[in-house]
Design brief:
Strand order of the largest sheet: 1-2-7-4
CATH architecture: Orthogonal Bundle
CATH superfamily: Cytochrome P450
Largest sheet: 4 strands, mixed
Mean pLDDT: 88
CATH topology: Cytochrome p450
CATH class: Mainly Alpha
């Protein structure tokens, strides 16, 4: 009887193993069928948009070499296939890339959510803030945060940004006696981080002098690791990334930044217990972004939760320093590359500043040629080279072609800015494209460095002010020359960077 019981138990175990194996096989077959049907659906949708030929397994990935030419590849495909064409990442996932302003205008004019594939990797760091929110909650946060970018709030920031820029330039002045060139992005990124902490949170980070600070290192780590995860396909899987050394490093960095953010918010809340009115706070110091967040109330009188507060602070830290650092670095590179325009800007700046070494609010509107050079640099080197959307509703374009809800759309800002059907001689650096007359006659969505429509960059005025200040004070003090032996190699990450850095020669203006 005992043997029969053992045999029965073994038989039952074997049956259950076979059932489990069968269920696993069915699950795999079901998943494979779903992937196959999804692929066929995408092919049916996109067959109306001719695009580049793709590899049977890799899609178009094998054509993207990551050698600084993949962005220009989008421009080349635009000339071959028009302003809307599919790009396949592998043979089962595709984006409809839009590279002409007529197509971009349709998508930018809608409140379509950001593509989860592009932005979800940031959520453990920045939370569900304005960058990734959708629907009514996005609209609520957008409305609550908009007062934080009113010119009355931005005005006091000019002196703070001037001080941070001056600290950076003082550091450069010490360095140029010891080294041949300066790598811009590293220093500019610390400066913009310093600025954002002082302006938006009234917080003295001291990061330009103490770049080994744990919080500063964590912010840089998170930017690097988020980009790494986006570019490394196996890391798209949460489990694989979680178990990897990079995943552990990412979680540790998130912990440091969240603890820092929570500390800043709590300190401000404690200080506000004794200063409940905005007027009293403004008498002691400038009104900042964090004040706006803490005082923000919706129509029902509800403020932001602690979780939402942290998300918006971390989102602003990410968007407010990395994108602006990219913009300033590439603008200064253009100034170094085109000395005739650099000199015209310098003459204009010196006429405005005279003997002063800092910028005032009123100065920002008195440097029109410098402003045109900044815009032309943003056209050639947009800080955010592209954005992605997932359609919630069907879209019909101006040419009658339609795509259904669920379609992934990539808007290549870089390719729109380089589209020869829109811009004459797009590779030529020509600031006169941005005279008032030329700007008035241009397509409304031909120049979109801050995106466009309801989901445009809420902080674009802050960013433009910081760019003007940083460029003006730099040119007022230094002559810049490009390092011809080490030209930058473009790499499109979350922001536009250079694989080998952005190196320039600096000489003190006499």
């Amino acid at each position: 009887m005992a043997n029969e019981a053992v045999l029965g138990s073994m038989w039952n175990a074997l049956v259950w193993q076979q059932v489990a194996a069968l269920l696993c096989l069915l699950a795999v077959l079901l998943k494979a069928t779903q992937i196959y049907l999804s692929k066929k659906r995408q092919e049916r949708i996109l067959e109306q948009f001719p695009g580049p030929p793709r590899h049977w397994l890799l899609g178009n990935v094998d054509q993207i070499r990551r050698d600084g030419k993949d962005l220009d590849l989008l421009v080349n495909w635009t000339q071959s296939h028009g302003g809307a064409y599919p790009v396949w990442f592998g043979n089962f996932s595709s984006f409809l890339f839009l590279t002409h302003p007529d197509y971009a205008k349709v998508i930018f004019g809608r409140e379509e959510p950001k593509s989860s594939l592009s932005y979800n990797f940031l959520v453990p760091w920045i939370g569900n803030g304005l960058l990734v929110l959708t629907g009514p909650k996005w609209f609520q946060h957008r409305r609550l945060l908009t007062p934080g970018f009113h010119y009355d709030v931005l005005k006091p920031y000019v002196k703070l940004i001037s001080k941070c820029t001056t600290d950076m330039l003082d550091n450069w002045e010490k360095r140029i006696t010891k080294q041949k060139t300066v790598e811009l992005f590293q220093h500019v990124s610390l400066m913009t981080l310093d600025s954002i902490m002082k302006c938006a949170f009234s917080y003295e980070s001291n990061c330009q002098k103490d770049s080994d600070n744990a919080y500063i290192k964590a912010v840089f780590d998170l930017s690097y690791l988020a980009n790494l995860r986006l570019r490394c396909f196996p890391y798209h899987n949460d489990t694989i990334f979680y178990l990897s050394p990079h995943g552990y490093r990412f979680r540790q960095a998130c912990k440091i930044t969240h603890e820092h953010t929570d500390k800043v918010i709590q300190q401000r809340k404690e200080s506000m217990k004794h200063e409940k009115e905005l007027e009293k706070i403004q008498q002691k110091r400038h009104l900042d972004f964090l004040d706006i967040l803490l005082f923000a109330r919706d129509e029902k009188g509800h403020g932001l939760s602690d979780e939402d507060l942290r998300a918006e602070v971390d989102t602003f830290m990410f968007e407010g320093h990395d994108t602006t650092a990219s913009g300033i670095s590439w603008i200064l590179y253009c100034m170094a590359k085109y000395p005739e325009h650099q000199q015209k800007c310098r003459e204009e700046i010196k006429e405005v500043l005279g003997d002063r070494q800092t910028m005032e609010w009123e100065d920002l509107g008195k440097i029109p040629y410098t402003n045109m050079c900044i815009k032309e640099s943003l056209r050639i080197y947009p800080p955010v080279p592209g954005v992605a959307r997932m359609l919630r509703n069907p879209v019909t374009f101006f040419d009658g072609r339609s795509i259904p809800a669920g379609t992934l759309v990539g808007l290549s800002i870089y390719a729109i800015h380089k589209n020869p059907a829109v811009w004459e001689d797009p590779e030529v650096f020509n600031p006169l494209r941005f005279t008032p007359e030329n700007s008035a006659n241009r397509h409304s969505h031909a120049f979109v460095p801050f995106a466009a429509g309801p989901r445009n960059c809420i902080g674009q005025n802050f960013a433009m002010n910081e760019m003007k200040i940083a460029v003006a004070l730099t040119l007022n003090r230094f002559h810049l020359a490009a390092d011809l032996e080490n030209p930058p190699i473009l790499i499109p990450q979350l922001v536009l960077k250079s694989k080998n850095g952005i190196h320039v020669h600096l000489n003190k203006v006499q």
